[in-house]
Amino acid sequence: MKRLLTISTLLILLTACSTKMSYHFMDWAIEWGLDDYVTLNEQQEDQFDELLTGFLKWHKTNELPKYANDVRGFRQQISDNSFSPDYWLQFTDKLRDHWYNIFTQCFEQMWPLVQSLSDEQVTLINEKLTKEQQELDEEYADKSHDELIKQANERIEDTLDDWLGSVTKQQKQLVHQYNSEREFTTDMWLEYRHEWYRQFKQTLLERSNTPQLKTQLKMLLTAPQQLRSQDYQQKLQQNTYKFGEWLVALRPTLTAKQQRHLLNKLDELIEDLDELAAEGD
User: From CA 74, how far away is CA 88, in angstroms rounded?
Assistant: First the structure.
């Protein structure tokens, strides 16, 4: 159920490869993601199809132009070398807002579908969520600090390789330095995810009790950050700012070829988003 709208804003913004193709298969991907959690009956299928059709039209017409403008702003910051940690904080805030806006837009149509779920369907969904939670715990169980750094290094290097075309030794050293100096919040993140899973599953079980449960579910989907502790939110903000500082330090290390590769990727993404948005006119 968590993947009811599985193609996220972040994926669209941060993945330039085959954006148009991915978007044209969004309806199939969303349905596939939902099927992974629950099998809907015929009436629920009709409800879901109506919701999905309206969502895709709204998203293409209203949201994609915003994404294109955000990427244009990001490209301008990179090309004129005015990028700053404060800008990065604002940019990442926009990304989160785009993501939560998807659920805000769809929630009123989604709520009746949630209410219509049978006890058997809810049991299957909650079993799937419990399995996901266990897999998440196992993935990070007993990982040492060095292992977390190595994993983070590999993740950032893979992203750089995609956006820059290659990664130099100096850039790998900067990646390692950043991950060595920042504060890992894995335990806090897992605690937050546990609480989200717990409340979400409980909300499904008590879905017939409105409006309190409706309000609770809306919060879980559109403002889940409320479940984060103040300490966790502060550390996330600090790490985001540090990542912005790291991006500033990375900028002078780019070769001419890497910069061309990056700007070309951004141009391709902007073009794809503009063309997709135009299809909704």
Answer: 9
d(CA 105, CA 101): 6
CB 223 within 8 A of CB 215: no
Residue type, 37: Y
Closest by CA position to 222, among listed 131, 58, 110, 87: 110
Cβ burial, residue 272 (10 Å; 0-12/13-18/19+): buried
Contact 247, 86 (CB under 8 A): no
Q: What is the pLDDT of residues 136-152, one digit of tens each?
A: 889 888 889 999 999 99
- What is the CB neighbour count within 10 angstroms for residue 147? 11
20: confidence class by pLDDT, cuts 50, 70, 90: low
Question: One-letter amino acid identity for 119?
Answer: D
CA distance 105 to 184: 33
Position 72 pLDDT exceeds 70: yes
Average pLDDT across the chain, whole number: 86
- Number of other residues whose CB lies within 10 A of the CB of residue 195: 15
What single-letter DSSP state applies at residue 165? S
Cis bond before residue 211 (omega within 30° of 0): yes
